[in-house]
Specification:
By secondary structure, the protein is an alpha/beta fold. It has a single domain (7-359), classed as Luciferase-like domain (TIM Barrel, Alpha-Beta Barrel). It has helices spanning 32-45, 68-77, 95-108, 123-128, 136-155, 192-200, 212-228, 247-259, 263-278, 292-295, 310-322, 335-359; strands at 7-11, 49-51, 83-88, 113-117, 159-162, 167-171, 185-188, 204-207, 234-240, 242-243, 307-308, 327-331. The strands form three sheets. An eight-stranded parallel beta barrel has the order 1-2-3-4-7-8-9-12, surrounded by four helices. The chain starts with 6 loop residues before the first strand and ends with a helix. Bound molecules: flavin mononucleotide (FMN). The site of flavin mononucleotide (FMN) has 25 residues, from strand 8 and helix 9.
């Protein structure tokens, strides 16, 4: 098992309604004051990263949405060590604009910004902003060019590129980002196209929640493909964490979230994402196998089963690490309180178990 401590990220609630499509009471805000405070709590609790979301329009909850690069910068300005990952959609963003924005933010924040290149699932959103909606694998072909171009701009002088989506001619970005060789590049997705892209160009692969068997299959697949390409990629897995003093309390919270789910919104969301996923030719997209209950959490976070007591959760996290997982991306019902609880009760147990395994 890796000697590097497993890393923790949390989803920035920069979109209203929290991370579950449910009418359960949530003490999670989406505004900037709530988010600044949360970022400070998370940094103090021992979280390494915060991941922002990009949404251009409402749909299935998420009535209000702050933009991801701007809010990432605000959270970096409010913290000292936390790294913040800005979600980016190729299409709406041009890589030259993004490369420049991120290089500047990198200088403003002492080298703590990263990006998450997502390929999109929400056709209605693209339609609303007049952006062409490409077929599934075409979206990934564009994302891969986007990442190649970002790396090129960030690391080369007089960068030139002739792709199907992007062209550059002797372009030199000044200043380059502080981070060397460049700010970290994350990506999201589970389909064949997503995994193949990760195995070629991404620093990190983020995937939806899943069972340990499902996660292991993805980790093995990506690592084998990456090794064949001479590339190395780290892996982050989504989990909706419900940590309570007793397992019964934690399970009761999950039951209540599902019982109070908004069935129409969950079904409509499921229809949209399954459509997006089904368009991946092999049918292994992010939500291909998601049930109604899974879909109540936008990214299948209940499936990872980090629901129970601090001890149970810590053991399951270390078991995921043993499968090759490098980072847990976490969502919570009441973010501020639960991130603090996680830092106090769960994280020390994870570190203890890691130390014990390392010594064994
Ligand atoms: C961790 C993670 C974060 C994501 N964040 C966003 C986001 O902020 N905005 C967005 O439109 N899609 C986001 N996505 C969804 C991706 O755009 C993509 O639709 C999804 O992963 C589809 O994957 P597939 O190729 O497996 O079908 C995210 C996915 C993951 C796994």
């Amino acid at each position: 098992m890796s000697q590097t401590p497993i890393k923790f990220a949390y989803w920035v609630p920069n979109v209203s309604g929290g991370l579950v499509v449910s009418r359960i009471e949530q003490r999670t805000g989406w505004d900037i004051d709530y988010n600044r405070q949360l970022a400070r709590i998370a940094e103090q609790a021992g979280f390494d990263y915060a991941l922002s979301q990009i949404r251009f329009t409402a749909g299935y909850g998420a009535e209000y949405q702050h933009e991801s690069v701007a809010i990432s910068h605000a959270l970096l300005a409010a913290t000292e060590k936390l790294r913040v990952i800005a979600a980016i959609l190729p299409g709406p963003w041009h890589p030259a604009v993004l490369a420049k924005q991120i290089a500047t933010i990198d200088h403003l924040t002492g080298g703590r910004i990263a990006v998450n290149i997502v390929s999109g699932w929400f056709r209605g959103e693209f339609h609303a902003i007049g952006e062409p909606w490409l077929e599934h694998d075409e979206r990934y072909r564009r994302s891969e060019e986007f990442i190649e171009v970002l790396k090129g701009i960030w690391t080369q002088d007089a960068f030139s590129y002739r792709g199907d989506f992007y062209r550059f001619h002797d372009y030199s970005l000044k200043p380059r980002p502080l981070q060397q060789p460049h700010p970290e590049i994350f990506q999201g997705g589970s389909s064949r196209a997503a995994r193949d892209m990760a195995a070629r160009v991404s620093d990190w692969y983020f995937t939806n929640g899943n069972t340990p068997e499902g996660i292991e299959a993805q980790v093995d697949d990506i690592r084998a493909k990456a090794a064949a390409n001479g590339h190395s990629v780290k892996i982050g897995v989504n989990a909706f964490i419900i940590a309570r003093d007793t397992e019964a309390e934690a399970r009761a919270v999950l039951d209540e979230i599902i019982a109070k789910a908004d069935p129409e919104a969950v079904r409509a969301f499921g229809h949209e994402v399954k459509n997006a996923g089904a368009a991946s030719p092999e049918g292994e997209g992010n939500w291909a196998k998601s049930s109604f209950e899974d879909l109540v959490q936008y990214n299948d976070g209940f499936k990872t089963n980090l629901i129970g007591t601090p001890q149970q959760i810590a053991e399951r996290i270390v078991a995921l690490k043993a499968l090759g997982v490098d980072l847990i991306l976490s969502g919570f019902l009441h973010f501020q309180e639960e991130v603090a609880y996680f830092g106090e009760k769960v994280l020390p147990l994870v570190r203890e178990l890691e130390a014990r395994r390392a010594a064994a």
